[in-house]
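Why run this: before we spend reagent on co-expression, it is cheaper to look at a predicted model of the complex and decide which construct boundaries make sense. The entries below are exactly what would go into the expression plan.
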Amino acid sequence: MPELAEVEYYRRVWDAGLRQPVTRVHIHAGKRVTRGVDALAVVNALTGAKLLGSEAHAKQMLFRFSGNAWLGLHLGMTGKLSVAPPDFQPDRHDHLVLFQKKQALVFRDPRMFGRVRFHEGKTPEWWTDLPPAIAAPEFTAALVRDFLNRRAKLTVKAAILMQERFPGVGNWMADEILWQARISPKRLCGTLKPAEVTAVWKRTKSVCAEALATVGVDFSDPPKGWLFHTRWSSKGKCPRCGASLKTAQVGGRTTRWCGKCQR
DNA sequence: GGAGATGTTTCAAG
DNA sequence: GCTTGAAACATCTC
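The model came back. Tokens follow.
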């Protein structure tokens, strides 16, 4: 379920390997997840290198190794990071495994919508070029307003799924933001009143912050009363008014919302 | 067996 | 050149 908060959680899972050298690298070359990656270069650079630190930004992760080696991971739809015993036997979905003395760091992604990146030298461009994080002061109301204004004929749901402006927001968070803001996901951005645009901005920030504080820390559930708890069930009800949730494809994704309190 | 899945990328049309 | 929507990607689960 990798959206911003889950990504942050998975990043920390690999902290188990901090400050320890990699003794062996297992990588699947020639797969969709490793496209554009020189597998031999990864093996050569990371074997013997120490994991020095990591960061998460939106749905992306960056792992820094000694020798100026950088590993980027995106979890796609079904990616996961885990820690396994040092004698772990990777199967066909375990596309990258970093073996260390005490454990193995495993990146698994059956559906392969995720991505492995690799770079040697200074901080890679694909990391420094990312848009401002939602938690950053640069993610301003004006930025959101201008973005939505320029997409007058796009549904607001589709707009807040766009990573170039709402980095890290995925399908369930988008539904949560709109439900909390009481705005129908089908509304076109051009019809939003200034107060509604502000609500989108505010709720984006708060939903991200609270998800990071719960899911992001220990995979615990987000706060009580959120749409999150009912949106997965086909019989789900609105936590606010009790009406049955509506379901439709909006912005190309399954969307659930309350037809009564979201206008 | 079929449909759908918490995500991008690409392509074509407007 | 920009915006928008749909298809494609690969595999598993319900």
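The beta strands of chain A are 24-27, 51-57, 60-65, 69-74, 80-84, 94-99, 104-108, 115-120, 246-250, 253-257. The longest helix of chain A spans residues 194-218. Bring this page to Monday's planning discussion.
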